[in-house]
């Protein structure tokens, strides 16, 4: 995620890196679904909120709802996805921390 933020200094490379970051996080999120029985309830709740936000963002993207936000393209194309990515990073760090405590 930090690499993507640094690459945003050259907007184009940041947007490109964000595509790979998003794909990696969605695949990682799908992978985590196989281990739900090992994840504490608190983190499961965060994971559910993550998937809800991903699905809502994806639905807005698929139905071209962002066209009506063209004045807010930075928000809809950069800030919201990076916010979702930040939240997913928080979830992964929580899982990592929980793993070291057990």
From TrEMBL:
Sorted keywords for this record are:
Membrane, Transmembrane, Transmembrane helix
Segments passing through the bilayer: 6-35, 47-66, 72-92
The protein's name is Uncharacterized protein
